[in-house]
Amino acid sequence: MSKVFRVWVWFFVFGLVSCVDQINFPLEKPETERLIVSGLFTDLEGPHTVFLFETTSQARQPLFQDGFFTLNDRPRPVTNAQVTLVEENSGSGFPFRMVRPGEYELNGQYAPRSGMSFFLQINVGGETYRSVPQTMPTVVGSDSLSFSFERTRDDDNPDAAQVVIRTEVTLPEQTGGYYLRWAVDEAYFWDLTFFPNPFNTPPPNCIVFDFPDPERITLVNGDLLNNPGGKSTQVVAQRGVDQSFLSRHYFNVQQLSITEDAYRYWTQIREVVNNTGSVFDSPPAPVRGNIYNVNDPDEVVLGYFEVAKSRVTRIFTTAADVPFFVEKACEFIPGKRRDQYLPTCLTCSAFPNSTSQFPPWWFDE
Amino acid sequence: MHSVFRLVFLFGLFLTFPLFAQEESKVYVFGKKQPNPASSYVLTGKILIQSTGEPLPGVGVNVDGLYTGVSTDKYGFYYLTLSPGPHKVTFRHISYIPIPTEIELYENGVINLEMTEKNFELEGVVVMSDQPDRNVREAITGITKLTTQELRAIPAFLGEADIFKGLQLLPGVSSVGEGTSGINVRGAKTDQNLILMNEALVLSSNHALGFLSAFNTDVTETFTLYKGNLPANLGGRSGSALNILMRPGDMNSWKGQVGVGTSNGKILLEGPLAKDKVSIIAGGRISNVNWLLNQARDIDLQNSRLNFYDGYLGLNWKLAQGHTLEANTLLTGDEFLFSDQFGYDWTNRVSSLRYRGILGENLSVNALVADGDFTNAFIDPEGVEAARVVNGMRYQQGKLSATWANEKLALTGGVEAINYQGKPERLEPFGANSAVVAEEIGKEKGWEVSGFLSMEYELGESTGLVAGLRYSTYSQRGPDTVYQYNPNGPITSENIIGQEVFGNGKIASYSGLEPRISIRQNLNSTTSLKVSYARLFQYVQSISNTFGPTPIDLWQLSTSYIAPQRTDNFSAGIFRNSADNKWEFSLDAFYRLGENQVEYRDFANIFLNPHLETELVFGEGKAYGAEFMIKKNLGVVTGWLAYTYSRSFFRSLSEFVPEQINQNEWFPSNYDKPHEVNFILSRKMYPRGLFNFSVNYATGRPVSAVTASYLLGGGLVVPDYSARNQYRIPDYFRVDVSYTVEKVFSKKGDSLNFSIYNLLGRRNAYSVFWQKDSDSQQLKPYRLAILGAIFPSISYSIQFGGDHE
Prior knowledge:
Order of helices and strands of chain A: HEEEEEEEEEEEEEEEEEEEEHEEHE
Structural class of chain B: mainly beta
Number of strands of chain A: 23
Shape of chain A: globular
Radius of gyration of chain A: 24 Å
Radius of gyration of chain B: 30 Å
Oligomer: heterodimer
Shape of chain B: globular
Distance between the termini of chain A: 63 Å
Number of strands of chain B: 52
Largest sheet of chain A: 11 strands, mixed
Largest interface: A-B, 87 and 89 residues
Largest sheet of chain B: 22 strands, antiparallel, barrel
Strand content of chain B: over 45%
């Protein structure tokens, strides 16, 4: 009987954990592509960044274009756009400049007083797009960060190592009337492979910038809380442990005090991003942001331009903090051919966003 | 995979178990062993029916375990040649007890036998009712009646007989998917189905996300489903009605039953408090599924908890000859916590007191008072906003009806009233880390009062008529706050221009006449044509912003802004039975038009919302289709094959974009499944076994799909979805088998059930969703199969007590 019992358990567990698999799902192609705007303007020095892209839905299935079949449905960067931050009352405009394809930056502090209202204006392809004006929020809380290294299940690995970043939030000193969002990015030193050479020259510095847990959208609705200046702890990021933890690994936690509209937008984005099709999930739907075409209000523009009061807090880990064995993926091994190393072991530019220059705050802590 | 084979082998072993439990073989010796025998000898004879002495044709002769191809002819004769020596010869007939023999054949032999009819102790899925020609004679179309005995014959998930799973095998009945509560009947929403327990209203009827019904079949007797053509004495929902008749306790002796299965343990006790006068029945179930969750590899599942229970207490008092008083209480509850991410719990109680009396040769009365209390809560246990949200509905129901009947005519008239009181919705902090402020939002109250008159009339041998009229009225009662909106704009929270506070008294009221009519015209004694029409109003609805119904859906009364739903239901069908009622054929078409149908807006915020109208879209609905069924009622093998073509659509009607879905175009509802095929077969196994096999196929339900993806903040990949329900998930297909055997260990009565749900282990999709692929950083489609494997289960129950074995 015990054997039969085990069989049932096996079947049941098999059923419980093996329910999700990838499938083919044929889709029709939309008739037009859409502009994507993603921007954040804060009360801090900056840089304030706006990403401009265009959807590529029509390329979802392999298409024969320019002599090639392509299956690339990643958004395409929009270049040659004029992007301007406009202060609503004075009408002053502050132009962004493109630093990378589709990435526009504005440096400096443009919201010295509370209560100032801003919108974004984009001129591209003969069309003018604007964001709905937003007033810079007036309060923001503060964060006290901590990290812990833990074991967790990651797909087939029941004992995967991860780091968990927590914040002890001190809420703003007011009851209600505020909305908070946390955005976490990371910066770490990456050890490129040190190949022996006659001058014993080490590889160049490689600082990589990334987002450790982009799908985690942490939000707080101050209207639900009654704890002015109170403290609460919450997780803001989780990330697997890899070679990036062999050197200094920074987590930059940005607490953003956002408008009610922005809070609603991010709540909807959280729903569609974390939708797993479960019984309790809301059916997903298109999320509409705050950008519109001045001449054609019916045109669908994806994304959001956010005006937020911000406070940035950083924490870093070093190899001494990691209680697990971490494999040195880029360590030089005699006899191993150069082409057998990962591309990211050979050159820093293999990372989408990296530099050889340390950011100015790297050694502040 | 060896485990699979072992399991199938075990299943097969149990399947054949009762075949071994037969009488001993008869021994026949023909001649003596000779040194030089002939190459073959003749074995012949005649098989008669023991009870009548008549010859029995069709008896198969098996030799040494193999069928020879020889059967008895119409005179009962058989003839075959065999090699000399010992043989095992078995005479088999589908309806008669097989006779095994052992023969030693050294010369030609004659064996004449008498066979006895099998007396099967278990019935198949089709139990002949007291009206075997009901299919043809019943005037109202779309009535389906199932008994508890039939339900037990249907292969069930986790081996537990279940009313909603059973009904889904019938044409026109479906659900959004595995893991959702309730049923969709003829393209109607789940909350458009009226559920009654001995005529008392029941709001919550499922356990464990809808995997099990809250009705324990140990205490139920019959289930009657009206698929759209409700008689006038039933109302309050705009789709269908399911009346569950509870079983009274035994008036003569005390007895009971205990059972244990893969999902729950249960107990039943019944007996007379005063013999032949007062009886009581008590049944309860409690879940035992947490051990399964503990076995899971996934830490989230290990940390999850699922508990449910239900209890029923029924008292039946024969006040006098023809006068009965019944008191019933059903108490059900669920508690589910998924890791530290989400949880819910709910309880539901329905208590009723019913008097049924015969006041004369032609007059009877029926009086009911009931009280219902439904409370549910969900928990978001994480972070500074960790909270528990509680809501529910309390209601009292009263119904009085009288029936006057003679052989030709039956008239039923009565009144019914329901007092609904929405429970204030509460937000409570959950856990020490929560900084949430407790909050309470009042919910609506309302009275629904109806009067009805129904007539059943036989216009002659071949024409029957059921006609009725129901007048229903509803009043929303205070105190409440009604929000005012800019009359030139959509109803949105941004357009609130004021609010009006009402004290006690009427706030809004609605009323309407609900005519019902069904006509049957017999073409001959075995064939009839039927047409029906029914108008139905609905004043309370379940509001949900999920694909399908969940246990935590909010019951919402009609208000100044939420007008009552109204449907007009038409159906026409042809029904035919074979002369002996062994076979039934039916083709039934339906068409439904609905007004004031309710859908949710995208990202609707339905909880703790004092103005729910800002989250809803109102419009019209239509559903149409046809149901075809062929059914075998009698014999060793019974079952049916049903095909349903069914469509269900919704269209918003507003001129304002926030109140529109898909630009006011018709779109398929979440439960629109055009094609559905159900096949079920029961094979009685002599003497106490029953083998069942069922097949389900359905078109995949509609979903929205990702048409583009984009990046936010440089790192977050966001899907952009299509208009609502423009695509479909893959089709559904499932095969189940079960085997039940009774009196295995106890002659008093016990029952052992083996079942395999989803025998083919198909990963039928509940939904399709898109997630970022870690390698390409692009969104890929994934299928979520809630029951994505084969699910074997076993359950055992044993009876005790009682007067006789």
